[in-house]
Structure to design on (803 residues):
């Protein structure tokens, strides 16, 4: 399946763009110019048929992915000197690949050649397919080497490059994904491109070799036209990135925050899949930013329909095959509407965000199953994505060898099961069960079938033929009723069965592990662990805090350049060691904003003031490197990057929240914690820059949450008392509830200078007891000295039963 980012339904009243562009004039110019250009180049071919790939799993490699080890021994290109696992995967292609940099760009200018830019990442299935079909093919490589300067980019290592050119592809095609295949002028202006291309003409698409020949011919005969068009495209994208967003809402008649909120709620209700949760249709992504907004909308409006949308979605995701029931963790997306058959890669950013979402679901409902799911994510990442020094790797591949003797990798091989294999495992381990029908119960609950449970529409090439992907068919209670037992007995059987399967699965060849330790994604994981640690019934709170603290220490030591005062984008795990690479790549907006968010969340869980101060320091550096002092908002990359033709401003919450969305919330919280007017002003300027994005609640749900916090006013809890467990218990009680934007301040009576907000020094203990003050918009309720009363106060406002 294609590693997709977006689809477009032209009949819908909203767009599911990963890069949402508001400058319609620029859009129209780019689309019109590009259509004319591509028709000129490709003639009879429907070049845009590759936009259809994301909507189905119908295109999958017809065979497994060969390692081609004999071929790779004969070649070595410049990628062999890189650290990125993705670039190293291509280091022995016959293609003369260059990493992105001055050498390749200068050569393109010197030889007046087009650049072929291929962008992907190491755990991307279709990147592997295109490598096998085209980049390992010597005939194709010969054309590429003669006609183009060929550059490989790891999108996770250089996301700013990916965002620029993916924006172009989404604008002209209506969708995008990886691998990204694009042709650039020597001045780095885009000419044409797409995503995956087959090696030869098929599916109504030109084959990759056809594309190479036709683009090269067009460059030889009309290079000036291509340069002019490409530069115009860059100018249009730059103009769109710089201007305030003005689509669907005007300065003459601006929508209020409440109107934006209500508009978003209507859209969510209309787009919702009432049976399977999430957004209607397939493929389905968790869309965690939208889940966060739904939780916020429930707290803000008390509309239980919003809570229902979020919880049913989380329930169905947890029941689906997108959830690794055997050991924990979640795949990136499902190819079907039921969340059954996933695209099997597991990404760190999903694990961290889903850990937050399931923790928040518990905080609202007190349903411990959500804590169990979040805890399983924690166990997965600390076992399989963890460097012993404390950082987390970026992800695991979808593809693996079915057996140690296999020569071809198959997507999902690590996770799929034969019925007879499970049956034999249960027979061999019958002594671990207290009932004889444990196997029948296990198969019924997870929909395990003798002929497999994968529908042909989700597996057109038969890679999962007769295989089973665990899928919760019935609830524990329904399964128990079916077999005349109780839920506790069923849960025990499932737990034991999964442990047996996990032990066997660990002996299978593992999917490839990407050893990049990405700063921003580690920030999301830090938030997830911290949110889980704040949950009162969490089973391993001390372990969560220990791992989170070690992670912060790791990031301080390995991901922050003290001399340059900059975060790094990534470092690399090499066994027990850590490498930064010979040419460090410095962090981007989301590396700062996600880590700052993680530090704020960790402070709430630990009350470690040093983390708030580091968050403040990083926020000031973020403002220095990325803030647009002329128009407002944050650029994604620094101004000092000479090899970036456009400084983008990301304006869509996708698989990860936009850096600007996370920054808006960070600024509001830090402004409150430190009474910093500069942070508060920047937050207002930032939300104002994006205020006319429409529909804001669907395109930028995290941004609208920030805008709502600022508009409605923050809640603040000030606890005054001695430095002991009784005093801290008030903060712990409050943090066990879902309260968006809660400012928690601990004022130790004999250490008043350590508080960040000096104005709270007026608060005093009552009757010499630890005392809590609940405030909103600078108005405080009567002081509380009994922790039970505080818990009752929060429970009455923020707890809800399921509906």
């Amino acid at each position: 399946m294609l590693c997709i980012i977006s689809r477009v339904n032209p009949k819908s009243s909203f767009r599911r763009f990963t890069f949402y562009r508001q400058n319609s004039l620029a859009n129209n110019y780019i689309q019109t110019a590009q259509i004319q250009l591509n028709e000129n180049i490709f003639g009879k071919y429907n070049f845009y048929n590759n936009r259809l790939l994301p909507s189905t799993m119908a295109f999958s490699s017809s065979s497994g992915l060969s390692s081609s080890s004999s071929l790779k021994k004969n070649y070595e290109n410049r990628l062999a000197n890189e650290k990125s696992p993705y670039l190293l995967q291509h280091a022995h292609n016959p293609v003369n690949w260059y990493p992105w940099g001055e050498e390749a760009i200068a050569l393109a200018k010197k030889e007046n050649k087009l650049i072929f830019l291929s962008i992907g990442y190491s755990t991307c299935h279709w990147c592997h397919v295109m490598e096998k079909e085209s980049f390992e093919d010597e005939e194709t490589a010969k054309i590429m080497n003669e006609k183009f300067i060929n550059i490989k980019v790891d999108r996770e290592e250089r996301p700013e490059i990916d965002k620029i050119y993916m924006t172009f592809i989404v604008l002209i095609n209506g969708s995008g994904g990886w691998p990204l295949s694009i042709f650039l002028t020597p001045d780095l202006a885009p000419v044409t491109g797409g995503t995956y291309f087959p090696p030869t003409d098929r599916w109504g698409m030109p084959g990759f070799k056809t594309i190479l020949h036709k683009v090269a011919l067009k460059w030889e005969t009309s290079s000036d036209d291509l340069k002019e068009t490409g530069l115009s495209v860059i100018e249009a994208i730059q103009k769109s990135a710089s201007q305030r967003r003005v689509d669907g809402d005007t300065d003459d008649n601006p929508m209020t925050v409440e109107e934006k909120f209500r508009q978003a709620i209507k859209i969510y209700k209309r787009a919702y899949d009432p049976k399977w949760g999430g957004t209607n249709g397939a493929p389905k992504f968790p869309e965690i930013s939208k889940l966060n907004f739904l939780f916020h909308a429930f707290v803000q409006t008390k509309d239980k329909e919003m809570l229902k949308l979020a919880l049913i979605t989380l329930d169905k995701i947890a029941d689906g095959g997108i959830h690794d029931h055997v050991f924990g963790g979640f795949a990136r997306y499902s190819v079907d509407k039921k969340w059954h058959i996933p695209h099997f890669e597991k990404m760190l950013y999903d694990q961290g965000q889903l850990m937050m979402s399931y923790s928040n679901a518990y905080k609202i409902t007190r349903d411990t199953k959500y804590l169990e799911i979040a805890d399983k994510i924690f166990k997965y990442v600390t076992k399989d994505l963890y460097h012993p020094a404390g950082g987390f790797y970026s992800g695991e591949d979808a593809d693996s060898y079915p057996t140690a003797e296999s020569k071809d990798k198959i997507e999902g091989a690590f996770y799929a099961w034969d019925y007879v294999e499970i049956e034999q495992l249960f027979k061999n381990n019958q002594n671990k069960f207290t009932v004889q029908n444990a196997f029948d119960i296990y198969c019924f609950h997870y929909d395990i079938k003798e002929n497999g449970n994968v529908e042909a529409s989700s597996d057109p090439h038969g890679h999962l033929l007769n295989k089973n992907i665990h899928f919760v068919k019935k609830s524990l209670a329904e399964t128990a009723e079916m077999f005349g037992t109780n839920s506790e007995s069923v849960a025990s059987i499932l737990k034991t069965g999964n442990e047996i399967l996990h032990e066997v699965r660990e002996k299978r060849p593992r999917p490839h592990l990407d050893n990049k330790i990405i700063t921003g994604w580690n920030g999301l994981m830090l938030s997830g662990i911290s949110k889980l640690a704040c949950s009162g019934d969490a089973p391993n709170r001390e372990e969560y805090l220990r791992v989170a603290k070690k992670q912060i220490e790791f990031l301080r030591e390995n991901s922050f350049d003290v001399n340059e005062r900059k975060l790094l984008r990534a470092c690399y795990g090499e066994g027990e060691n850590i490498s930064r690479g010979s040419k460090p790549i410095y962090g981007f907006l989301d590396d700062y904003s996600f880590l700052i968010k993680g530090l704020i969340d960790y402070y709430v869980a630990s009350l470690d003031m040093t983390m708030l101060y580091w968050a403040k320091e990083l926020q000031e550096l973020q403002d220095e490197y990325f803030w647009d002092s002329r128009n407002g908002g944050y650029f994604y990359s620094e101004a000092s990057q000479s090899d970036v033709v456009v400084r983008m401003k990301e304006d869509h919450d996708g698989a990860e929240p936009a850096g600007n969305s996370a920054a808006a919330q960070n600024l509001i919280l830090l402004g409150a914690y430190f009474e910093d007017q500069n942070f508060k002003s920047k937050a207002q300027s930032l939300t104002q820059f994006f205020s006319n994005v429409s529909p804001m609640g669907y395109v930028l749900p995290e941004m609208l949450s920030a805008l709502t916090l600022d508009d409605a006013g923050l809640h603040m809890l000030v606890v005054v008392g001695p430095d002991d467990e009784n005093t801290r218990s008030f903060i712990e009680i409050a943090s066990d509830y879902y309260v968006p934007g809660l400012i928690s301040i601990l004022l130790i009576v004999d250490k008043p200078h350590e508080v960040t907000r000096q104005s709270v020094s007026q608060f005093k203990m009552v009757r010499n007891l630890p005392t809590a003050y609940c405030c909103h918009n600078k108005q405080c309720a009567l002081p509380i000295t009994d922790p039970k009363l505080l818990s009752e106060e929060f429970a009455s406002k923020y707890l809800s039963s399921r509906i």
